[in-house]
Structure formats: C-alpha cells, structure tokens
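User: Need the bound-state model for coenzyme A:
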Amino acid sequence: MIQLSPYSQLPDDVRQLLNDYIHAEFGHIPIVQETAWASPDWTILYKEGDTIVSFYNIIERYILMDGKSCKVAGINNVITPAAFRGQGYCTKLLNDTTSFIFDELRTDYALLLCADAMIPFYQRLGWYTVDSEVYFDQPSGRKRWAANIMLLSLHKPVAPATIDLQGTPW
Ligand SMILES: CC(C)(COP(=O)(O)OP(=O)(O)OC[C@H]1O[C@@H](n2cnc3c(N)ncnc32)[C@H](O)[C@@H]1OP(=O)(O)O)[C@@H](O)C(=O)NCCC(=O)NCCS
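Assistant: Bound-state model below.
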C-alpha cells in the first residue's frame, strides 16, 4: 500500500525510523554533511502491512529554468531498506506516484540530484539527465551543483541551459 503523508504529519516514531535509514545510507558522505538541505514537504511510503519497504521525500519548489518559473517536485532520500531491495518496490513506488506528482501537486517537472551509478535506474523509469548549470543557495551564498541532475517530464523532455533551485538543494 502506498501512503502519501505531509512530512509535518508523520508520527514521530516513523520520522525517527526514516531518519535512521537516511543517516545510515547517506550520513557518512562528506557533501551530505557539508550541505544545508531542504526540508521535505511530503513523505511517500510503500508499506507491506505495517512495514515500510520503500520510501522517498518530495520538496515542492518553484525554481527557475532559463529564468522562467516552473513548479517542480524535488525528489530525495529514495531508500529501500536493505532487507527489501531488488524486489521492485522502489520501481513500483516511483511509477505509481507520478500522477500524484503531476496531477495532484500540479508540478511541471520532477527533479532529482543523484550519483552517477543511479542514472540507468532512473532512466529505466523515464527520467533523463540534463547538462544544465545548476545553482542553489547555502548559508554561505550561491553555489553551483557539480554532480548529476535528472528530470521527469509529463510531456516532452526539456534541456535548460541554467537551473536555479531558488533555495537549498535536496
Ligand atoms: C536504489 C534503491 C532505492 C533501489 O530500491 P529497490 O526497491 O531495491 O529497487 P528495485 O527493486 O525497484 O530496482 C532495483 C534496481 O536498482 C538499481 N540499483 C540499486 N542499487 C544500485 C546501485 N548502488 N547502483 C546502481 N544501481 C542500483 C539496480 O538497477 C537494481 O536492479 P537489479 O536488482 O536488477 O540489480 C535501493 O537500492 C537503496 O535504497 N539504495 C541505497 C540508497 C540509494 O542509493 N538511493 C538512491 C539515491 S538517488
């Protein structure tokens, strides 16, 4: 069963469990430690009974693509806990929630920042990479994102020269 929850309404024990998974997966990575990240607006849970078998977060944000304002669903902390991996849970979760992203949140694009190794996985789900210069905010000022950025479009793919996340990254 897929459960869509505003992040602010997640029960404390669930938020703690997800934070433990997130910390275990990404907490040791220097760029993760050194960066100020956006807070999620939504958490999307895939549950088998009471057990969370896959999840991710969404940040709703108006960004600039070549100076034009667009609404995006920023996707982050995509995790299937180790015991449940390789069974298609994440694929199903991402596929089954595209209508929430585009129809209910009324976004123009979904956008994620990811490691090289994960690109083929997201490409299989219809995402594409863009060569855009990507800028984001940090307490120390405006920065340029050095790694990959991927988009998912409801209609045709776009290739903006610059993207400004208009805030902290995710
Ligand atoms: C990536 C992840 C969410 C996939 O969840 P899942 O439920 O096992 O995904 P699915 O069963 O739908 O698909 C599995 C596919 O994911 C891809 N994949 C998983 N981990 C990968 C990795 N480290 N590098 C490259 N591809 C990977 C593979 O294509 C895999 O297919 P295979 O099982 O045939 O090898 C899960 O492995 C995970 O939580 N990893 C650690 C956190 C992470 O890296 N998240 C992604 C951040 S962008």
